[in-house]
Amino acid sequence: MNDRYPAEVGHSMESVFPESRELAAQLVGQGFSGDQSVRVTIGGNGLVELVDMDPRVMRRGSEELAELAAEALRNAQEDWFRRFAEATAPLREERARVIQERLRKSLEENAQMYAYRTREIQETLAKLSQDR
Hints:
Blueprint: H1 6-14, H2 19-26, E1 29-32, E2 38-42, E3 48-53, H3 62-131
Antiparallel strand pairs: 1-2, 2-3
Helix pairs in contact: 1-2, 2-3
């Protein structure tokens, strides 16, 4: 699980993907406790928007209730991060494609420059051997 809040993730990715902050703000994460008695919803700002508990869960001890709430919150955060990864996948794929294309062009230019410099060196060496 990620230790950062959803809003921080959206903000940190903004430098690479300006659209990510808007995407992050629109996402909602939802999680349940293992027994489905507690449901937590978090918004794109990383804050809890809703905690819903089955009334029967109130009969349990405070420690168990706290564990159920924490489990539901963790699951809501994981859901939010999964949704964020899915929503930003096309952005990351496009960015990767652009970077790969730039790299390919740069490698082609370097190969051409290497070939040109190799020919220059060979011509210079040939001239030097003729001058002897």
